[in-house]
């Protein structure tokens, strides 16, 4: 969808901001460009919508060389979100969001209707916020209007330059989560610039780690954290990359243990095979749990003695969320459910299983490295045999 072919940008003063860059972003993919200040991320991004022209090489958007597309027409196909949102100060939130579609010829009433839908989508109730002016919003709310406005013309591509950089860490995390949810439904092709490795791994399907004007590694967050390509990347992702891996490794059904299970309308069993059992409803959805102590000493149905389960997560949630949920509820295990199928119980994750899951993902990367070693050896063998 977006393809860089040997792109170089040299500014007039001789600074080479981007040096022979080649990479590709697939349709519907979110790629984060991450690296220290001044490494060329913004320059890379601005060449896509021709705010900056490359010195050499070319950039293709859906197969079209962008240098041959009229910049105005090009920018219609590309939403752009920046840190200083640049909302029109004298227009209401609703009008700010509706302006671009209206300029593109959508009737005013329809543009405003669509703007209201988008505000809703980014978590701003149009009835509450639609008539406010930008200076009557918090920083986080302004960022959301920025995202809604960028989506208003329904462009297939979004360029986002540190869009959540100006808000505090708590709001930032909330905006990131909301944006991820939004992206799941709109599936835009996104190039997202950040200098924050946490943000890059949380949001990116793949991340491009920039050195000076070059990409040092371009891979999934899990591989970049598990197998940094070189010392520069290892240094940039940080010594705590093992911890960061927790946030990019999902809970998988194979990670779960199967504890004893009882159903709500069962009579309370006398003996349990363990210290507790998970309680399910008639459709096998998670309800709660009972302890062996209760079952030994009391009578009646499970329903009368079941306690609600608070420590649970959907399958696919991150190991970091799992760990955090265990700590929050001081729980020795958490239940895992399939939310796409009501809340069907799948099993429980224990600290030991969590540890195994983390090792499983590290081992998967280690296998890749081992394969690469084998390839090199084979190559050595061939070269040596000559
Ligand atoms: N108009 C310009 N003229 C000369 N040099 C420039 C110009 N714009 C950017 N540069 C230089 O190009 C290099 C890359 O800048 P760029 O803004 O792309 O980096 P960045 O990775 O986005 O940095 P930051 O995270 O600080 O925004 C830097 O050395 C910068 O000083």
Description:
GO terms for molecular function: ABC-type quaternary ammonium compound transporting activity; ATP binding; ATP hydrolysis activity. One of its GO terms (cellular component) is membrane. Keywords: ATP-binding, CBS domain, Nucleotide-binding, Repeat, Transport. Residues 2-237 form the ABC transporter domain. By secondary structure, the chain is α/β, with parallel strands linked by helices. The protein folds into 2 domains: 2-248, P-loop containing nucleotide triphosphate hydrolases (Rossmann fold, 3-Layer(aba) Sandwich), CATH 3.40.50.300; 253-354, CBS-domain (Roll). It is built from 15 helices and 17 strands. Strand 12 and strand 13 form a beta hairpin. Helix 3 crosses helix 4 (108-121), helix 3 (93-103) runs parallel beside helix 6 and helix 4 crosses helix 6 (139-152). The chain is globular, with a radius of gyration of 26 Å. The two termini are 42 Å apart. Residues 369-386 have low confidence and may be disordered. The structure holds adenosine-5'-triphosphate.
